Amino acid sequence: MKKRCFYIAILAGALLNSSCQDFLDQKPDTILTNDQVFGDPNLIRSALADFYDRISWGQRPGGGQYDYTVLDEAIKYDFDQFNSFDRNRWRVYDYGLIRSFNQFLQGLNETDALTDTEKAPLIGEVRLLRAWCYFNTCRTLGGMPIVGDEVFDYVPGVDVTALQFPRATEAEMYDYIISECQASAELMSGDKTTNNARANKWTAKMLAARAALYAGSLAKYNNMMPAPIQTAGREVGIESARANGYYETALAEATEVIEQSPYELQDRRPEDKALNFYEAVCVKEANTEVIWARDYIFPGQTHGFTGANLPTSMAQDANTSYLSILLNLVEEFEPINTTTPGQGSKFEVGSFGGTPQFFETASELFESRDPRLAGTVLYPGSTFAGAEVVYQAGQLNREGNAWMKREGAANSTANGQLLTSENGPIFNSALRLVNKTGFGIRKFLDETPAAGTIGRGSEMWEPRFRMAEAYLIAAEAAFELNGGSNAVALSNINAVRARAGVQPLTVLTFENIVHERRVEFAFEDHRYWDLLRWRRAHIVWNGNPRNEQAGRRGLWPYRVVASGDPNNGKWAFEVRNMDFIYPNPLYFELRHYYSELDNGWLNNNPKLVRNPYQ
């Protein structure tokens, strides 16, 4: 066996008896040779544990919350001139990690420290993690070199031609990812893991389904563009004839997860659908929904998302209110009693210059919407950890026959009553630590005591796959194969809608699919990739200031303070453009659909070709 080195944690014999979460908590602190690692079953498993940290680099919720603010979900609390997308922001190109996976597989296959039966699930696990890495590479760069199981050792002076692989086609790369997932599933256990932190058979099935759905979408929608985005060798661009085959694979893999896995849509609180949704996504204990997650645990592995995003009045540390959620997203949550189920609608709030609409409570306007709204967003009058969240931009006063709005500084008063809440929203582009849109984030906000402090941090996990996605993949794939009246498509999307507490659909449209995924998966790293695979990003975020989808909007609440008026004490709302803090509309160009190949990569490997618009 060749003398290669691993960075590895020396963990004594306790590792075999530890929980799955403990397994993933281990940190490398010592350099050991290949022979040392693969001669000890404990160290083999510890080396595998390190891979979970490496595949999580740059992912939310800990350090990536700014990513939400360059989409149409949220803005941050201070001025930002962001306009054009950074095409390389989410680029993944980590062949060092691929080499480590292959090195591990080689050592695992050669070792006598484990039986073949013991090796099999570990081999499957590593192949699945490698497929995950390739998937994240492919959706940012298109087809890239596939090196198989080879482990290459570079010695200065040798001919490097054999180390220079050409790019695979985009279809070949998705085919490889899907086949690796299918092979991994056969090797891995179907049992749940602690906090769903380790991948299992059903993780592999979900990645196969997601990859197939992405590939099918690209094969269909890229070719529907007036000028499809592609390279001459199809490193970017999948033939349209491949679409149905990919959709069939996506449907089959997702259906198997739905029908045979130990997971299910979590629906324990029929009396409180909002809380039920929050718990299904965010609470680990006895969770039946989440299949695979990036987990965190105290002490040792926590993050600052809760501390950064608590309302100002509930702050537990120096930072607060980083994310302000956009009305663009909030309006997508449909009214429960709508006549057009499966699509969002604007709030009817009237006009302060004409006839405002008045509401008995600050929350009334939002309580009639899809309950997932309350499980995702903190809106005026909602609660967090048992306390009311007060968002108030100002007062609405009566002056003669006219209504006049009045605003002040944070936590100010007028007429003996609160004028502007310390939580905001406030019209000040330089003021930090206060809300700007009238909405905060609820999803992934942790109610655990002291979770918002720097000293403790939050253990909130980041779900990568959950059962709702299996149902919506099946629904979308069946729709693409058989149309909107297809019973399979309808039954799957309606299962998710029934759990949410909204009306079933009788006919499914593509726009219903877009809508459902947006409200179900808000802040779960789907929105950007969905618009890319459907080739809609440049249409939705077209940089036009007159396009509401490209702009950012908020909805500011005002308390009516008008003694003697029948509306005194009620609430009114005004739609506000966020151009005072985000002056530029979102602008996604065709060149942003794929990341660039770095010049260093091109110089090192002349067989690589550039991406379109590069």
Description:
Residues 76-212 form the SusD-like N-terminal domain. Belongs to the SusD family. It is a single chain. The protein has 614 residues and is α+β, with helices and mostly antiparallel strands. 34% of the residues lie in helices and 11% in strands. It has 19 helices and 16 strands. The chain has helices at 20-25, 34-38, 41-54, 95-110, 116-141, 170-187, 201-221, 243-260, 273-282, 305-309, 327-330, 364-367, 372-376, 467-482, 487-500, 510-520, 527-533, 537-540, 599-604, and strands at residues 5-8, 30-33, 74-76, 290-294, 323-325, 377-378, 383-384, 387-388, 394-399, 402-407, 412-414, 417-420, 440-441, 462-466, 553-560, 571-577. The strands form 7 sheets. The chain has a 4-stranded mixed beta sheet with strand order 10-9-15-16, with no helix packed on it. The protein has a two-stranded antiparallel ribbon with strand order 1-2. A two-stranded antiparallel ribbon has the order 3-5. A hairpin with a 2-residue loop joins strand 11 and strand 12 (417-420). Helix 3 (41-54) packs antiparallel against helix 4 and helix 4 runs antiparallel to helix 5. The protein is globular, with a radius of gyration of 26 Å. 49% of the residues are buried. Residues 7-20 have low confidence and may be disordered.
